[in-house]
Amino acid sequence: MFALSAYLDRVGLADCPRSASGLAQLQAAQMRAIPFEAIDPLLGITPDLSFDSIAAKLVHGGRGGYCYELNLLLEAALLALGFAPRRALARVRMGKPSGGPRTHLALEISIDGIVWLVDAGFGGPASLVPLRRDADAPQHAPNGTYVLRDDAATGDRVVWLDGDEPFALYSLDGAAVTDGDIAAANHVSATWAGAPFPNHLMVGGFDGAIRIGLFDTALTEHTHAETRRRTLRDAEDLRAVLCDRLRLQLPPDRIDAIWRRIAPA
Fold first, then answer.
1. I want to staple 170 with a disulfide (CB 3.0 to 4.6 A). Which of 85, 90, 96, 98 is the partner?
2. d(CA 121, CA 31)
3. Which parts of the chain sit beneath pLDDT 70?
4. Rounded to 5 degrees, what are φ and ψ at 261?
5. How far is CA 7 from the centre of its chain?
6. Distance CA 6, CA 79 (A)
7. For 92, what's the count of Cα atoms within 13 Å in the CB-facing half-sphere?
8. Contacts 24+ apart (CB under 8 A), 159-163
9. CB 89 within 8 A of CB 177
């Protein structure tokens, strides 16, 4: 059974109304409290997507996870709160003109006839709040402006970070998603040599109002006012970012193992 009270404690909420505003509150709270992190695949571990394992790791173990873990956790919370989420697999673009395999898990929820794209598990610069899936106009979130457009070549619905230079995040094709689809996508994402996660450290989360991103030793800190970039110096610098700023619970030997994988030759 889903321990809703423990989940709400983890994300810092007392309750969540079954409404569009409650949905936005919940997504933002989870994204601020539970970082995106693909540490396990980097260390050769395929994440266990059984719900007990996800809850033990993300709710009780002080860890984050990647999209399958984060959005399956969010799905369970939404169901416990009386929402009716639908799963959606997406093709990651990250600035490219077309997407790769259908390996990103998101959710969709219909409220009062409006379909919302709900996603607390994207490792890139994703919206803190749900986006209207069928709206064409720019949508303003606390951390940026987003727009969804149809791709005439593929028929997919593409999520863009809007701005002077729009940046494509991922695309959705509307196909149904089964447990088997998710299990297969998880295996591919965690083990395939062509996937980023077995080869690179990828982390994204919030330290207050600052969004922190890590790609191997490259650290990015983004606020409304500026973006700062620097390179991690050593394992202690890595520990400070992961454990002090993003509040992940990782023992020293795990930090050392991560650093050995990403440290410059």
1. 90
2. 8
3. 1, 265
4. -75, -30
5. 17
6. 15
7. 15
8. 159/90, 159/117, 159/126, 159/131, 161/125, 162/138
9. yes
Q: How far is 131 from 119, CA to CA, in rounded Å?
A: 9
Q: What is the pLDDT of residue 230?
A: 97
Question: Are 67 and 74 within 8 A, CB to CB?
Answer: no
How many whole angstroms separate alpha carbon 32 and alpha carbon 210?
10
Length reported for the chain: 265
The pLDDT of residue 265 is 57
DSSP character string of 234-262:
SHHHHHIIIIIIS-----HHHHHHHHHHH
Q: Which residue has the tokens 């207050």?
A: 208
How do residues 174-201 score in pLDDT, each as one tens digit? 999 999 999 999 999 999 999 999 999 9
- Residue 47: strand, helix, or coil: coil
pLDDT of res. 2: 84
Q: Which of 141, 97, 94 is nearest to 116 (CA)?
A: 141
For residues 44 and 30, what is the distance between their CA atoms, to the nearest angstrom?
Answer: 26
For 184, residues 6+ apart whose C-beta sits below 8 A from its C-beta are: none
Three-state SS string across 160-223, please? EECCCCCEEEEEECCCCCCHHHHHHHHHHHHHCCCCCCCCCCEEEEEECCEEEEEECCEEEEEC
- Structure tokens, 72: 């399956």
